[in-house]
Amino acid sequence: MLRLGAIPASLPTRTDTETVAYAARLTGARALVSLERHGTAQLGDIAREAALTCGHGLGVFLFDESGGTWRMAPTGQRTSLPASAADLAHIMFTSSTTGRPKAVMHSDNTLTALNIGFAERFSLGPDTPIFLASPLGHSIGAVHGTRLSLHTGAPLVLQDVWNPERALETIEAFGCAFTVAATPFLKDLVDASWPRPTPKLAPLRSFLCGGAQVPPSLMEAAQAGFPNTFVTVLWGMTEGGLVTCVRESPREKLMNTAGFGLPGLELRCLSTTGDILPAGEEGELVMRGPGVFTGYFGQQDLYESEITDDGFFRTGDLARIDADGYVHITGRLKDLIIRGGVNISPAPIENALADHPGVNAVAVIGHPDERLGERICAVVLPDGEAPSLKDLIAHAQARRLPKHHCPEVLRIVDSMPMTPAGKIRKADLRAVAAGDGAVSGEPA
Length: 444
Fold this sequence. Notes:
The chain has 444 residues and is of the alpha/beta class. It contains 12 helices and 23 strands.
């Protein structure tokens, strides 16, 4: 596509027909390129139906085992690029937990700034192969996979279908030195069996983990299980930014923060009234810098609504920036639980519950309550026998969680709804929280 002069607008393979058609309409896309099928997913059917319903002429090019097939689109009016897209190089769609994905615009300059920042911070070059199991249609795959590989000249080693044991073997076989992946990938690798005498992930110099909350207990387990590998939380968005620790970071920062920004990235925390907060105070994290996106395609009003008067992008994340410049992500503005008029962030509660032996995955959300507005609900995917609410409360209090932050309602699920980026879809879980038939605590 780049050689053709086309502008890629990438979507994960786990995208439904309606979303593909919406993305095509929003961007005025002229061609849709896809596999005929991926596993059991009939992507060709999705592509053909999306082309018929998108509302303008859309060519479809499908690959299968025998090669490629091209279906010409009916003649349609071409959509001109908005003025804000003059330097557009790539459109990446947010893996939004609510509502429609947004079409995030990046330029060659913003993408190159991110690639240079990572190459310099983690000493990447043509001799450091990159392993990637994340979807190439997601921003992690696009920025830290294909484009980073093109930038450094390093081989890009891909895993099509996730299997942690196979990933360990692949990294060993190809000497992969760098990867970026979401939290579930890291946990699976920690838990995977490895009968060989060499340490797990022995060739891997750096493992950047992001996309979802990374509990300190998982960081501890990764450090113990991967003695040759530097593991750090990666905070970032499809819109850019990117924050990590480095090998020289103090252990306390490595275990409990997201690190500090790439060169040139400016970060602030703002109060609800828009004032800049001093070090250590919680507020909305905003960012400005060379790796930050240039706008939302076709949604200029939305973009302007999320930019401050001095050009900082409102991330929607709650955070504290300490005196050393390290970022402590404390939650999402929309994820806040409002219990009796008090705002409670789910992130510390999730961290406290994550290392319970009966918890495979946990999300903390608000449970509707007539008296308090919301109560604290823990939605748990169990690991073996499901824990009781009493067990979780005792575990949380042993982790020094305040009593008024302990879960009051428990819902047990057999699967967690996930985005392609590995984030739990909390919006989908709120219907679970409001349902009947689960264990709940006594009214406070």
